[in-house]
Design brief:
47% of the residues lie in helices and 19% in strands. It has 575 residues and is α+β, with helices and mostly antiparallel strands. The protein has three domains: 145 residues, PAS domain (Beta-Lactamase), CATH 3.30.450.20; 59 residues; 224 residues, PPM-type phosphatase domain (Phosphatase 2c, domain 1, 4-Layer Sandwich), CATH 3.60.40.10. The strands form three sheets. Strands 3-2-1-6-5-4 form a six-stranded antiparallel beta sheet, sandwiched between helices. Strands 8, 9, 10, 11, 14 and 15 form a six-stranded mixed beta sheet that branches. Strand 12 and strand 13 form a beta hairpin. The longest helix has 57 residues. It is elongated.
Length: 575
Amino acid sequence: MPIKSIKEMSAHERRVHSLSARMFSTIVKSCIILGLVILIIGLGLYGLVLSQQYIDSAFDLSCSAASATGYGADSVSLSKRVMEKYRSLSEEQIQSIGSSRYKALFAEFEVDHDYEALSDMLYSFLEHNDVYDVYLAMYDEEASRLVYIVDPDPSFPYYPGEWESVNRKGMEKFLNWDGEGLLYDIEKTDIYGWICTTGTPIRDESGNICAFLLVDLTVNDVLRGMGPYALQVSIAIVIITIIMAGLLTRKMNKTVVKPINAIADAAVEYVNDKRNGVNDVDRFQTLNIRTGDEIENLSLVMADMERDLTEIESNLTEVTAKNEKISTELSLAAKIQAEFIPHVFPPFPERTEFSLFATMTPAKEVGGDFYDFFMIDDDHLCMLVADVSGKGIPGALFMMVSKIIIQSCAMLGQTAAEILAKTNQAICSNNEAQMFLTVWVGILDLCTGKLTAANAGHEYPMIKAPDGDYEMLKDRHGFVIGGLDESVYTEYELQLDPGSRIFVYTDGLPEATDEEGRMFGLNRILDVLNEDPGADPEKVISNMNEAVDGFVKNAEQFDDLTMLSFEYKGCTQNG
C-alpha cells in the first residue's frame, strides 16, 4: 500500500500520525525501556543485598540452633552413634538407601529421646524462620556424602542414616572451615535447583567435629523477598512514565508542534495569496514565534525568504520581459542569418556541370560559421567556407560583414589570393573588436575544371579524384583574415576531372567531442567519406552528420558545424 501524504490522510489519521502522538508514544516507550533497565539493575543489586542478608540470617540461625542443641538433648552423642552405625555398614548396605531394610537399620534412633528432642527443637526453628530447611547432618568425606542425623522437614524429611551425594568442593569448604567469616556454599542441584547451604559445626569435648547444624536457602526464598520490591518499583515506573509523558508532550506541543503548525499554515496561506495575486500580506512576519531556538530561527528565515521572494518576483518580471525581448531578437537574428546564407538546393538547377550541397549548424541560436557559393560569370563558380572567431550576435554580425566583403571582392574579378588579401585589408582597417576569421576560397572554371584556391588559416580540404578515395590536401595556409593588415596569401591550382569531389568544413567537425572528451578527428572524417566515396554531395553531408551524432551522442555541441560538399561533372559543351 503506498504511503499517504498528509493531505491525503483523514482527520483521525492525522491525529494518529501527528507529531504530538508520535512524541507521546516515543516518550512512553523511552520511559518504559528506561524503567525496565532501572528495574532490572535495581532488582539485581537488591537481590545481591537481599541474598547476603538471607545468608547472614541463615548463618546466625545455624549458630543459634547449634547452641540450642546443647540444652535438653545430647546432639554430640546422637551424631556419633548415628555415624558409627553408618560407618559399620558395608557399601552394599549403604547403597540400599530408601529400602525398608535400610530404614530398619536406623529405626532405633527414631524413638531415641535425644532424636525426638532435637527434631522438635529444629522444627520450631524452621517454622519461625523464612528458610527452606534446618537440619543436623555429618559429611562422609571419603564418599562425598551428607549423612542426615535429624531433619524435621515434614514435607520431605530425611531419616537418621539416610544420605545424599554432595559436591566435594563444598564439603571440603565446610570440613576445613577456620571459623573466620560466614560458612556457606552455593550450588545448583538436580532436586532443589539453586540452593545456598550455611552451617555451624558441632564439636565434642576434644574439639572434633561430630556434625553440622545446617540451614538451606533456595532461590524461591530470595524471590519471595524481592516480590514486594519489584511490584513497588513497577508501580512507581508506571506513574512516573504517565506524568513525564504528559508533561513533556505538553511542553513539546507548546514549543515545537504549535510553532511548526503555525509556520506550515503560513506557508499554505502564502501560496494561496500568490495564486490569488495578493502581494501585500506578510504571513511569516506576523507569526511572532519566540521559542528561542531553531524553530524561532526558522520563522525568521521564512520571513526573510518571503521578503526576498517578493523582491525577486519584482526583479524577475523585469528580467523575464528583457529575456523575452532578447529571445525574440535572437530568433529574428537566426532567421536573418539563415536567409543570408544560401539554403536552396540544388542552387543552380540549370547548370549540369556540378552538384553542390552545404549545411551550417550553429552551436547557439546564431553562429559565426558560414559558407557561400555564387557564379562570378557564366563560366566561373566561387565557393568558400569560413569560421569567425566569435559566437552569438557579435559573431553573426561579423560573419555577415565578412561574407559581403568577400563576395564583393570576388565579383570584381579578383583571384582567390587577391580576394583574401582585399578582404583582410578591409576588415583590418576597422576591427576594434579584434575579431578574425579563417577562410578557404576556391574559383572553378566550369569548362576546363581548373580550380584556383587559397587558404587563410582554415582546415585542410578533402579532395577525391574520379577513381580514387578522398585524401587530405595539405595546402599552404596564409594568416587569418583580420589578423595583420599586410598579410599575403598564396593561391594554388587543382585540375578537376569529371567525377572529382571536394569536401570543405570548419573546425567544429574534427573537434566535435564525445562525453569522454575524445575528438572526432581528421581520420574519422576520411573514414566516413571513404565508406561511400561515390555518394552525391547531399548524401556525403548526411553520412557525416549521422557519424558525428553517433560519436558525440548526448555531449553538448560547443562549436558551429559547417560543411560543403562539391562534385564536378564536367562541361557538357566539351563533353
